[in-house]
Write a structure and sequence with these properties.
Elements lengths: L3 E4 L1 H6 L4 E8 L7 H22 L7 H11 L9 H10 L9 H13 L2 E6 L6 E6 L5 E3 L5 E3 L4 E5 L2 E5 L15 E8 L5 H17 L2 E8 L5
Parallel strand pairs: 1-4
Antiparallel strand pairs: 2-9, 2-10, 3-9, 4-7, 5-6, 7-8
Helix pairs in contact: 2-5, 4-5, 5-6
């Protein structure tokens, strides 16, 4: 079943440039794609270190705008980092990246290359109608590999059961495992530029090449209307 995603009008009021790139696809999740890791370490790590040198992490395109959006929503972007910034900081510090599975690893590749936060969700564990909104007062969920995360004022993905993800850290509910058969990958953009369109295009190629994604449906959610 195709998922639908709308942006909450209250979020648009606070940050009009918000859009979400969507990729929904079938997949057989594997443990690791060696070719992707070679490409990541040889090409992308170098580009990332160059970007850190040229800009400083906080000023890297699309991270800069994401941090500004967090401030507009009422969240401290240095305490609750956008996930792309957290990944890029790990590379800058020489810590490398966690190997999770083929889908999550490509998810992280797209995020590092674009500067956008990217989240991937098992469609079997989310409802068909989704909304991207600002986290509500006192709202929390159990993060992947973490305790309860305070998602109040964070940009969050939610369905009728509640919040399931955010551009900082996703919940356990729809995490990708080797049992996952269909995925919704979302690219969270707070930038008023065309980088989202580009990220969708190479994201689609990476998912096909390195994760074996098939039957990909691709669209951009930028509307507050269902």
């Amino acid at each position: 079943m195709h998922k639908s995603l709308v942006i909450d009008p209250a979020m648009k009021e606070l940050w009009p440039a918000v859009r979400v790139g969507c990729l929904q696809y079938k997949v057989t999740v594997g443990r690791k794609n060696e070719e992707m890791w070679k490409y990541l370490k040889k090409e992308i790590f170098k580009k990332t270190k160059d970007a850190i040198f040229d800009y400083g992490v906080n000023e890297i395109p699309n991270i800069k705008e994401s941090r500004a959006a967090y401030k507009a929503f009422g969240k401290d972007p240095s305490r609750y980092r956008v996930s792309s910034e957290a990944l890029i900081r790990r590379i800058g510090q020489g810590k490398g990246l966690y190997e999770v599975n083929t889908v999550v690893d490509v998810n992280n590749l797209i995020s590092i290359e674009s500067g956008f936060s990217v989240g991937s969700y098992d469609t079997a564990n989310i409802e068909d109608c989704l909304v991207f909104r600002v986290g509500r007062e006192g709202e929390t969920y159990k993060g992947i590999g973490k305790e309860e995360i305070n998602i109040e004022c964070l940009p969050v993905l939610a369905d009728e059961k509640g919040a399931v993800g955010s551009s900082t850290s996703d919940s356990e509910r729809a995490m990708i495992t080797e049992d996952t058969e269909e995925v919704l990958t979302l690219i969270y953009s707070f930038s008023d530029n065309q980088d989202l369109e580009r990220a969708l295009e190479y994201g689609k190629r990476y998912l096909e090449k390195y994760a074996g994604a098939r039957d990909i449906r691709m669209w951009i959610a930028d509307s507050t209307l269902i």
